């Protein structure tokens, strides 16, 4: 069994940056991610524009995620996707043993937990057979706004995501119906006001009752809405977007053999360098809690670098507390020369 210097649990922004920064600090690293794809929560907002990361031009979530992954894989970490961590143990020799859902076990000198808000999946419709439309016109995330151009779109939900998509699609779709179960929407005030003044047809006290398939059964052709207590209305649709929130699963924090100190609900207590109540085990990103913690991408990157630096000193107490800036770091020397050659060749 290969023993890595660091095992990072979670391949979101914090985990990917930790994998990159482990390479900067010349440590071997393994990255374990429960979902089939890397990128963490950024997977959930591929079409949203991200403006608030220093020095990075505004970018769609999909573009941002692509760059994050590219950077995270710079030093060829050992990556296991579709792999859920279920337990962390400490062996007698002081190393950690990380157990995954499929019974595998990985050894590591240190661990960085970057599990964010857990394994997140959209709350799906509880209507029998609804899943068969997920390959055609039932959506839980918006991958591309263009899909909806000129189409009849029904959005189900009354929170921020549903309201945001209704506002975004107002000028793009042919018709947007927003079906909201309660009498009020629970979004940001300005966005609620915007949707109420738009062309979006807001139908309060309604919910999806039945999906009516097209003749060949491949698509949803109509949606039957339950209105109030016992009235039904049928609407023609080209697409249905469901934003009913997310399910999250972060049970290994409580179930692990190692008892980690937590604050509140499934947040790991740590200092600003990511040091937890267990020596050699660090936390970074949205999963960590300390005074001044910033639950943003920028905060995740700082946490990751700090956690890697702390792990470096755990593995090698003689090592410097901080890494060299990249412009002075030997690990980039060869790559910088390659890039300079490419630039010169393209002139
Ligand atoms: C809709 C939305 C819009 C946002 N917009 C912005 C924005 O514009 N700007 C900004 O700065 N921030 C934004 N954020 C916040 C930002 O996405 C988060 O701060 C960031 O993703 C946190 O990164 P993370 O790596 O800590 O956690 P996550 O992104 O949650 O990643 C954690 C990863 O760990 C994995 N994981 C969890 N448990 C396990 C396990 N047991 N085994 C293996 N893997 C596991 C998960 O599957 C996930 O991939 C937004 C968030 C949302 C939801």
What keywords describe this structure?
alpha/beta, FAD/NAD(P)-binding domain, 7 helices, 2 domains, globular, 5-stranded parallel sheet, single chain, 347 residues, 7-stranded mixed sheet, binds flavin-adenine dinucleotide, 29% strand
Architecture overview:
This protein has 347 residues and is α/β, with parallel strands linked by helices. It has two domains: 3-120 and 247-342, FAD/NAD(P)-binding domain (3-Layer(bba) Sandwich); 124-244, FAD/NAD(P)-binding domain (3-Layer(bba) Sandwich). Helix content is 23%, strand content 29%. It contains seven helices and 22 strands. It has helices at residues 13-24, 61-72, 160-169, 189-196, 252-255, 297-315, 333-346, and strands at residues 3-9, 29-32, 49-50, 59-60, 78-80, 85-90, 96-100, 105-113, 119-122, 138-139, 152-156, 175-180, 201-204, 206-213, 220-227, 231-236, 239-242, 246-249, 262-263, 267-269, 281-283, 288-289. Strands 1, 2, 5, 6, 7, 8 and 21 form a seven-stranded mixed β-sheet that branches. Strands 10-17-11-12-13 form a five-stranded parallel β-sheet, with helices on one face. It has a three-stranded antiparallel β-sheet with strand order 14-15-16, with no helix packed on it. The radius of gyration is 23 Å and the shape is globular. The protein starts with a strand and ends with a helix. The model has no long low-confidence stretch (mean pLDDT 95). It binds flavin-adenine dinucleotide. Flavin-adenine dinucleotide (FAD) is lined by residues 9-15, 32-35, 40-42, 44-45, 48, 50, 52, 84-85, 114-119, 250, 252, 285-286, 295-298, 300. Flavin-adenine dinucleotide is lined by residues 9-15, 32-35, 40-42, 44-45, 48, 50, 52, 84-85, 114-119, 250, 252, 285-286, 295-298, 300. Residues 325-347 are annotated as: Disordered.
């Amino acid at each position: 069994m290969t023993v890595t210097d660091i095992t990072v649990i979670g391949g979101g922004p914090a985990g990917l940056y930790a994998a990159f920064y482990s390479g900067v600090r010349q440590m071997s690293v393994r990255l374990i991610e429960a979902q089939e794809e890397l990128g963490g929560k950024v997977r959930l907002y591929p079409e949203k524009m991200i403006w608030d990361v220093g020095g990075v031009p505004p970018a769609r979530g999909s573009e941002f995620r692509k760059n994050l992954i590219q950077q995270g894989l710079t030093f060829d970490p050992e990556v296991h996707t579709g792999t859920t961590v279920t337990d962390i143990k400490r062996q007698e020799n002081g190393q950690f043993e990380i157990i995954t859902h499929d019974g595998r076990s990985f050894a590591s000198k240190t661990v960085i937990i970057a599990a964010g808000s857990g394994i997140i999946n959209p709350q799906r419709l509880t209507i029998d057979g609804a899943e068969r439309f997920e390959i055609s016109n039932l959506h839980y995330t918006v991958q591309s706004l263009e899909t909806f151009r000129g189409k009849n779109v029904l959005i189900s939900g009354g929170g921020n995501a549903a309201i945001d998509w209704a506002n975004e699609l107002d000028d793009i779709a042919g018709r947007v119906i927003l079906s909201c179960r309660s009498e009020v929407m629970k979004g940001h005030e300005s966005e609620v006001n915007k949707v109420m003044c738009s062309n979006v047809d807001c139908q309060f006290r309604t919910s999806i009752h039945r999906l009516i398939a097209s003749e060949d059964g491949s698509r949803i052709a109509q949606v039957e809405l339950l209105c109030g207590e016992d009235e039904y209305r049928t609407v023609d649709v080209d697409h249905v977007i469901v934003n009913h929130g997310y399910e999250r699963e972060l049970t290994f924090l409580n179930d692990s053999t190692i008892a980690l100190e937590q604050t509140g609900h499934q947040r790991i207590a740590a200092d600003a360098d990511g040091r937890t109540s267990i020596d050699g085990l660090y936390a970074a990103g949205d999963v960590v809690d300390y005074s001044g913690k910033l639950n943003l991408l920028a905060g995740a990157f700082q946490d990751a670098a700090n956690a890697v630096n702390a792990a470096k000193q755990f593995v090698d107490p003689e090592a410097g507390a901080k890494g060299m800036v990249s412009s002075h770091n030997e690990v980039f020397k060869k790559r910088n020369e390659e890039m300079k050659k490419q630039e010169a060749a393209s002139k």
